[in-house]
Design goal:
The chain is mainly beta. The protein contains one helix and two strands; from the N terminus they run αββ. It is elongated.
C-alpha cells in the first residue's frame, strides 16, 4: 500500500546546503590524532508543499577507532 501511495504522489527530496562552517578547539597530537569540534550551519529547503519537515536540533558525533 505504501509503494502504491508513493508511486502516485512522487514526493520530492529536500535540498540541504552548508551556510557556515567553523573548526573549534582543535588539538593535533604528536602521533597525528586530531581532536576537534566542527560547527556547521545547515540550511534545508523543502521542495514539496504537501509535506512538512520539522526539527529543532540535530547532533552528529563521529568516534573513529584508535589505530596503532
Amino acid at each position: 500500500a505504501l509503494l502504491i501511495a508513493w508511486s502516485f504522489d512522487k514526493p520530492k527530496n529536500p535540498i540541504f546546503s552548508i551556510n557556515q562552517a567553523a573548526i573549534n578547539d582543535y588539538n593535533l597530537t604528536s602521533n597525528n590524532l586530531l581532536n576537534t569540534t566542527f560547527t556547521l550551519i545547515v540550511k534545508s529547503h523543502n521542495l514539496d508543499p504537501k509535506y512538512t519537515i520539522k526539527y529543532n536540533n540535530i547532533t552528529v558525533s563521529i568516534f573513529p577507532g584508535i589505530y596503532n
